[in-house]
Write a structure and sequence with these properties.
By secondary structure, this protein is of the alpha/beta class. It has eight helices and 15 strands. Helix 6 links the parallel strand 12 and strand 13. The two termini are 18 Å apart. It binds NADP nicotinamide-adenine-dinucleotide phosphate. The site of NADP nicotinamide-adenine-dinucleotide phosphate has 31 residues, from helix 1 and helix 2.
Length: 333
């Protein structure tokens, strides 16, 4: 049987917001899986802001995408053929050969999905976005009951989990987003205490000060730029800042917060994080988040885009805030 995979290649490196012609959909014939390999048909592809960083040719915590080579990322699929005794055809797995429909992968990189949650949840609240939220808030932010937590991009895959865990831990939560509809979900569905539409307020610092009259103790940063500056301004002494992402800066020449010196005077702890450095928390994370989902304490939203051919557009749409919750591409059979 000849196996043809349709896969995306990065054909040119973007400057500013990526354009559709940066991506090429290419057909490649695959070899049948050998010993220790799996043939997998992808069902769900994860669409993530961090992939923008991989489009730049620079050394980082994860290698950049090479031009004219298959792109990758998190995905969920079903095994068609197995060359490894740990897996059988029909098993559903999460793995890292995204941006394509069919893949032959090393079985060591596959994780079986065998719980009751929908499989795509393993790309969202039960996957790396969820772990980033759990570890970044609990280990780095160390929130205490009664403290005030501010989270940016609060209606997104990471932010919405941060907001809910902070509520579960007894904190007062302030969330920002660029959409009134998303803010209504945060306030009405998951009980966020105060919301800010950063696109509408004339002065983000003033809006944050009004939402947090007693200051903020924890800031979970998904946005950087003006959000980080406002958070430093309104932070209390000994506040903890988790620097998870800075999406505002991904498509522009980055600039630092002008009030960075206040970090000294307020003894603020700023800590950057990469989710894969927190794999020691995986079991606790799975247990807690599964329990919160089962107990109705943790909800999530998905924006589902149909068809592999729409993957680049879905990726670009992240930077226009077109997703509510986790951005996913669904592939047909
Ligand atoms: N460090 C790690 O290991 C790690 C792991 C996962 C994710 N991250 C980072 O965490 C952040 C959130 O990721 P995610 O997967 O949960 O994405 P997401 O929040 O689900 O989607 C991105 C959201 O960012 C907001 N946004 C886009 N452009 C913006 C801008 N110029 N200014 C302000 N907000 C903007 C939009 O929401 P609005 O409509 O509300 O503007 C958009 O929906 C990203 O920065 C990502 O890189 C880091």
């Amino acid at each position: 049987m000849s196996l043809v995979s349709r896969q995306y290649h990065l054909e040119r490196r973007p400057h500013g917001i990526p354009e559709l012609d940066c991506f090429g959909l290419v057909e490649r014939t695959l070899d049948a899986p050998g010993h220790g390999e799996l043939l997998v048909r992808n069902e769900w592809l994860s669409v993530d802001p961090y992939m923008r960083g991989r489009m730049v040719d620079q050394k980082s915590y994860i290698p950049p995408f090479e031009l004219n080579q298959p792109m990758d990322g998190a995905a969920v699929g079903v095994i068609l053929e197995s060359g490894d005794e740990r897996f059988a055809p029909g098993d559903r797995i999460s793995h890292f050969a995204g941006w394509r429909d069919l893949a032959v992968i090393n079985a060591d990189t596959a994780n079986r999905i065998d719980t009751a949650a929908p499989p795509q949840a393993y790309l969202g609240p039960l996957g790396f976005p969820g772990l980033a939220a759990y570890a970044g808030l609990l280990r780095l932010g160390s929130p205490k009951p009664g403290e005030t937590v501010f989270v940016s991009a609060a209606a997104g895959a990471v932010g919405s989990v941060v907001a809910q865990i902070a509520k579960i831990k007894g904190c007062r939560v302030i969330g920002s987003s660029g959409s009134d509809e998303k803010l209504a979900w945060l306030r009405d569905e998951i009980g966020v205490d105060a919301v800010i539409n950063y696109r509408k307020v004339p002065d983000l610092t003033a809006a944050l000060r009004e939402a947090a009259p007693n200051g903020i103790d924890v800031y979970f940063d998904n946005v950087g730029g003006g959000h980080l500056e406002a958070a430093i301004e309104v932070a209390n002494e000994f506040a903890r800042f988790t620097l998870c992402g800075m999406i505002e800066q991904y498509n522009i020449e980055p600039s630092g917060p002008r009030n960075i010196m206040a970090v000294i005077g307020k003894s603020i702890r700023l800590e950057g994080m990469i989710v894969t450095n927190f794999l020691d928390m995986w079991e606790d994370f799975q247990r807690d988040v599964t329990g919160w989902i089962d107990g109705g304490k943790l909800k999530w939203q998905e924006t589902v885009v149909d068809g592999l051919e729409n993957m680049p557009a879905a990726f670009i749409d992240l930077f226009a805030g077109k997703n509510s919750g986790k951005m996913l591409v669904k592939l047909s059979d």
